[in-house]
Amino acid sequence: MAQFFKAKPNKTKQLSAKLTLTVSQLDHLGAGIAQHDGKVVFIPGALPGETVTAQLTEQKKKYAKAKLLNIQTPTAKRVAAQCPHYQQCGGCDLQHMDIAAQREHKQAALSNLMSKLAVEIDSSVMTASVTGEQWHYRRRARLATLFDKKTKHLQLGFRAANSNNIVDIKQCDVLAVALSALIEPFSNVLNQLQAKMTLGHLELTEAENGLFAVLRITKALKAGDEQRLKAFALEHQIQLLVQDNDGELRSLVSDDDIELPKYLLANGQVECRFSPGNFVQVNADINQRMVAQAIEWLDPQQDERILDLFCGVGNFSLPLATQAADVIGVEGVPEMVTQAKQNAADNKLTNLSFFHADLSADLSQASWLGKIDKLLLDPARAGAYESLQWLSKMKPKKVVYVSCNPASLARDSQVLIEQGYQLKKLTMLDMFPQTHHIEAMALFEIK
To answer: Per CATH, is 140-251 categorized as 2.40.50.1070?
Structure first.
């Protein structure tokens, strides 16, 4: 069952008088930073160089948070948001900033965090950012639903910022064009179903083998609803699956085995399939280039043993196995390990093995843990701190660390440095344009 954040009452949240503040910089979460009465004030939506009218909404001992009311003097880096839902939707938070300025900020934020928490970053370490299209880059999205009992309307969209409310949308400019075009038609057909008050989320995916949609249902659909959905799927040429409370998937358009979405890696040499719920990088173009760069940095050789921790369904492991003698992938989600093994078999990669393990637990008895030549890490936001405690047993010559959280990357970099590694390269990967999220890749080599 999904759990959502519910704000607790906070006695410090008291509105102040309106203040005129000058914004000096952005924090790594994309909020403007100003000073007032000796405190740092964070103002979401404000940009460096701007003078703004704001109102304090929360005060702590050393900092405060404020609501942006008006921009008195805008910066040249401010642009009009392209999306009509931008002020309500919680998906994007930097559409008001020029794309070049977004990327400049992200690279600086990454460099500053690493310099502050781990190791000084200079021009010899920081390499050119990996960037791509700023719009229509997402190949996958999960849309929430909410049935309004008063209007009898099923809302379909994304959650509002810091809220459980649903922003009923008709388009999304960061979604792949084909997926964005499906939102309004899907909303219309779902509102025609008898079961519209019992529907869950809708997951949309653009893959190499077509468009896929997974509709979460909490009760079995009646025949009329199934027929309506089947006709919709055939009209729009999508693979439409329903997923029940037990997680079981069923196709509404075919009685054959379910075809899973796939994407290509290693210049089309490798196919990677994934199931609904499996994690995959949503930006197909940046993912391709990220994998290529990781392999270039690792420089795998035919006689080497390479370990890929937090391997998912094989995003890095599969292409690595086309170039290295022995590749081992380890993942904490059992279903993804099963899919990774199937992907290896489908690609006829016999030098690749996958294991399931809780990578935050004691790994001392793990059969796969031992001397390796090179290590690749691609953890979730929490980072790989616990896994890195076993570095002395692995002793890799090179470590490539792919991170979606520069704060945990900086913390974990300290562990690597303490173990005798030197940071050689650091790159910002603009995986999520129009948002503050920063993806990064770091290369460490043993001194």
So the answer is: yes
Packing angle of the helix pair 99-117, 406-418 (nearest 10 deg): 40
C-alpha span between 196 and 153 (Å, rounded): 8
Burial of 230 (C-beta count, 10 Å sphere; 0-12/13-18/19+): middle
Angle between helices 177-190 and 223-236 (to 10 degrees): 160
- pLDDT digits 0-9 by tens, 66-86: 999 999 999 999 999 999 999
Catalytic positions: 404
In the sheet that holds 31-36, the strands lie side by side as: 18-22, 51-59, 63-73, 39-44, 31-36, 25-26
pLDDT at 279: 94
Which residue's structure tokens are 């992907």? 343
Give every CB contact of residue 138 below 8 A, 6+ residues apart in sequence: 172, 174, 175, 176, 179, 282, 283
Residue type, 256: D
**Per CATH, domain 1-78 is 2.40.50.140:** yes
Beta strands in 300-420 (DSSP E): 305-309, 326-331, 352-356, 374-377, 398-403
Phi, psi of 336 (to 5 degrees): -75, -30
Cβ contact 34:24 at 8 Å? yes
What predicted TM-score, i.e. pTM, was given to this entire model? Answer: 0.92
Q: How confident is the model at residue 442 (pLDDT cuts 50, 70, 90)?
A: very high
CATH class of 107-132+283-446: alpha beta
CB atoms within 10 A of CB 123: 7
pLDDT score recorded for residue 13? 52
The runs of H, that is alpha helices, within 57-176 are 99-117
Q: How many other CB atoms sit within 10 Å of the CB of residue 378?
A: 24
Instruction: For the chain, give every domain's residue range.
Output: 1-78, 107-132+283-446, 140-251
Q: What Cα–Cα distance (Å) separates residue 280 from each residue in 144, 176, 207, 258, 283?
A: 19, 15, 11, 19, 9
